[in-house]
């Protein structure tokens, strides 16, 4: 294991894992407990982020968990058009899914050896983008190949950095519950830190 990368990417890996689980698995008690267990390995300031407090509140209060689940569906799923659509193409390709951005992210996945098995969602679904980031962090920590970090940085600048800001703004503006407003701020904190971390690693290599 590369200790330098492990030290710098450990929080990234955890935050990416938490975010991918929110979208790739049903938001229920079991998934919530998994996410909270993972969050215990975060360091400052992430471990004390209000989003973690909101998740703990949902774990203790079944009524709040149900409200959070309904609001999750209203924001990100439907049945009517989601208030904060979790697909990159929608923010660029005339507000449609399966656009040019979908094909671009697929190229990154293919190069990394990732094949999306779930064809219910396009490749630029936020859950898949976080899964790719998580996969690349894991590979980087367990490898001495600097090219992995460069690929991750290229992906981050080509995709998440170009639409997560709009996505999180919609979460903050449209959410009726604090949990999803704080989730948006948690994602913004992740991006802010990730840019600094990847730049630091690339300058060292």
Automatic annotation (TrEMBL):
InterPro entries from the xrefs? DMSO/NO3_reduct_chaperone, TorD-like_sf, TorD/DmsD_chaperones
Q: Which UniProt keywords apply?
A: Chaperone
Xref: SUPFAM superfamilies: TorD-like
| Any one Pfam family match given in the protein's UniProt record, by short name | Nitrate_red_del
What is the name listed in the Swiss-Prot or TrEMBL entry for this protein?
Answer: Ubiquinol cytochrome C oxidoreductase, Rieske 2Fe-2S subunit
Organism of this sequence: Campylobacter sputorum subsp. sputorum
